[in-house]
TrEMBL record:
Protein source organism: Prunus mume
Keywords tagged on the record: Signal
Record-linked PANTHER family: GDSL ESTERASE/LIPASE EXL3, GDSL ESTERASE_LIPASE
Protein family per UniProt: Belongs to the 'GDSL' lipolytic enzyme family.
Any Pfam family the entry gives: Lipase_GDSL
Protein name as catalogued: GDSL esterase/lipase At5g45950
Signal peptide boundaries: 1-32
Length: 368
């Protein structure tokens, strides 16, 4: 059921939030600089100036470029629709959802990778991505591909705080962290690259036990974020794994592989339950973005979003290629019509759709 929005509320500052929420609901129907300007103005009034990102390839803006791993996308055709048509390490043809969220808030058009030595210090107060493609809630998932585990990403957050204090002073740095929006997006690799490919975890956990283990890892990370000063967190749910072109190819499915989708749906339910508990028992405000529902709706109703190709990716055949196997391949002529860029990752267009929904969630759950 669609969320209904109250017209009047008594809580101090809530009228501004309702104003923002209503405006964001109208964004798909409106266009032009005045609307975006209004969103930026209201976000500024709510002290949202910084986005700090943790996760996997869905939010990695290039950290894997600077570590020793084979999991990279710093080559064409990745990034062909990014600014100046250059690959950055983002696993898409252009920007990620977190980039669009940052742009809507108004302080930067992209979220830089924290490990990028070329990042500009003046951009630090507005956010950074610590995410690493092929990572997961489970440390073992990251170790398989030699990428940054979630605890390692949190260590880099501490390094970020040190740099921020040197740049703006301790009090301002603490304020920036306190009012920042933390974003966490992962979970896909824990199954597709870990549980279903490596024999280690299946020997230790049933599927449900492993889901519970992942949620406990997530909760531990959130506690650490809170201790480091975080007060606002958005968790992006696991997408419909069975609808990924690669999974459909491997399982020889003509439609979405239902068993994989049920797995993702079940994990998302457990994540939501844990977030509700955390919100009720701590001062950490949490929100959940239903990537599963948003992507599935786009696949089932593509015309609503101006899409037409939902079954394969834009790179190569669109059925198996991703990462290095996508290197240098021909792509479709119009990625704006595709849900998937490669056989695993969404297009910039799909990330923009996800971002619009995430911003609505921010307005409803966190900016109060």
């Amino acid at each position: 059921m669609r969320q209904t929005w109250p017209i009047m509320v008594e809580k101090k500052g809530a009228l501004v939030i309702v104003e923002l929420a209503l405006l964001l609901l109208l964004l798909p129907l409106l266009s032009g600089a005045p609307v975006i300007g209004r969103v930026k103005e209201i976000a500024a009034r709510n002290n949202v100036t910084c986005i700090l990102v943790f996760g996997d390839s869905s939010v990695d803006s290039g950290n894997n470029n600077f570590i020793v791993t084979t999991i990279k996308s710093n080559f064409l055709p990745y990034g062909k629709d990014f600014y100046n048509g250059r690959p950055t390490g983002r696993f898409s043809n252009g920007r990620l959802a977190t980039d669009f969220i940052a742009d809507a808030i108004g302080y930067t058009k992209t979220i830089p990778a924290f490990l990028d030595p070329n990042k500009k210090l003046k951009d630090l107060p507005h956010g950074a991505s610590f995410a690493s493609a092929a990572s997961g809630y489970d440390d073992f998932t990251a170790n398989i591909s030699s990428v940054l585990s979630l605890p390692r990403q949190l260590k880099y957050l501490m390094h970020y705080k040190v740099k921020l204090r040197k740049l703006v002073g301790q009090k301002r740095a603490e304020d920036i962290i306190r009012t920042a929006v933390f974003v966490m997006s992962m979970g896909t690799n824990d199954f597709l690259q870990d549980y279903y490919l490596d024999p280690t975890r299946p020997k230790q956990f049933t599927v449900e036990e492993y889901q519970n283990y992942l949620v406990s890892c997530m909760a531990n990370a959130i506690q650490k974020m809170h201790r480091l000063g975080g007060t606002r967190l958005v968790v992006v749910g696991v997408p419909p794994l069975g609808c990924m072109p690669l999974v459909k190819t491997i399982t020889d499915a003509t439609t979405c592989a239902e068993n994989y989708n049920k797995l993702a749906f079940s994990l998302n339910s457990k994540i939501q339950e844990k977030l509700e508990t955390i919100s009720a028992t701590s001062r950490m405000k949490t929100a959940f973005v239903d990537a599963y529902g948003i992507i599935q709706n786009a696949i089932n109703n593509p015309a609503l979003y101006g899409l037409s190709e939902t079954s394969k990716g834009c790179c190569g055949t669109g059925t198996t290629e991703f990462g290095d196997s996508c290197r240098g391949l021909e792509t479709c002529t119009d990625p704006e019509k595709y849900v998937f860029w490669d056989a695993v990752h969404p297009t910039e267009k799909m990330y923009e759709i996800l971002a619009e929904e995430a911003i609505k969630t921010l307005a409803q759950k966190l900016l109060v």
